[in-house]
Design brief:
This protein has about 90 residues and is of the alpha+beta class. Helices cover about 60% and strands about 15% of the residues. It has a single domain, classed as Arc Repressor Mutant, subunit A.
């Protein structure tokens, strides 16, 4: 879970995740929303992928990124456990 929190700590990576809520996108499509070099976008996407927050699938020459919603469900369960502890 350390990788997940590290990935979520960066505001640009959180914005990339928000973009992917609309559906899968290629790295170039994601990068078009930011004032970042292609290498920087790729770096951020690799951190999100290492944290298992996104999946990357090859389609021809392109890599298409999509959200891995199961990790978000695990995070919600983890966060909810704190609420339960507070009320006990």
């Amino acid at each position: 879970m350390d990788k997940t929190f590290k990935a979520l700590a960066d505001s640009q990576r959180r914005e990339m995740l928000k973009l992917l809520r609309a559906g899968p996108m290629a790295a170039g499509e994601i990068g078009a929303h930011f004032d970042l070099t292609g290498a920087t976008v790729s770096y951020h996407l690799s951190i999100l992928k290492a944290a298992d927050l996104v999946r990357a699938d090859k389609e021809g020459n392109r890599v298409i990124y999509s959200l891995n919603t199961s990790v978000f469900e695990d995070l919600l369960v983890f966060m909810a456990s704190f609420k339960e502890d507070i009320h006990e």
